[in-house]
Specification:
By secondary structure, the protein is mainly alpha-helical. It has a domain at about 35-135. It has helices spanning about 1-20, 35-50, 55-85, 95-120, 130-135. Helix 2 crosses helix 3 and helix 3 (about 55-85) runs antiparallel to helix 4 (about 95-120). The radius of gyration is 25 Å and the shape is flat.
Amino acid sequence: MKKILVMMIAVLAFITASAQPPFGPPPGMPGGPGAPKGDRNARTIEMLQKALDMTPEQAKKFAPVYQGYMRELRQVRKDTKTYVDSFKGEEMTIKVAKKIMMAQLNGDKQIIQVKKEYIKVFVNYLTPEQLSKVFTLGQGPRRPRGGKGGPGGPGQFPAPPAGAQPPVGAPM
């Protein structure tokens, strides 16, 4: 009797769980499976326009420029990743490690250059307050890439041992 009761509860639980709608938006809807990527970019731009409290004129000029900005950033990141990935089959030596690090630093330098170029464009139609926010609002919080966080959190150095002296010139 007990086994039958447990079996009936398990079957009912399975039926109830399988009858629930899937999580997230339905397929084809913005943000759902199969949704075009353009919808995501459009939502990001719309969110930025609202957060920056843009006038209709500003919003009209902002969208295509911001899309170009994001396109250039994606291309720099893609090129950097492609170059770094080209070393995957090689044995890790100091020479290879230096090449990888230099590629990543050059990618960072290119990203900074793209941002500098777009500041010159955005300054023509954004207020100083909007300009100061435009490069930070659309990026969202930074997530650590790979690895596990230690005592100091993801990507942080562990805390120094108790009683250790700080490095010379370090803020206290």
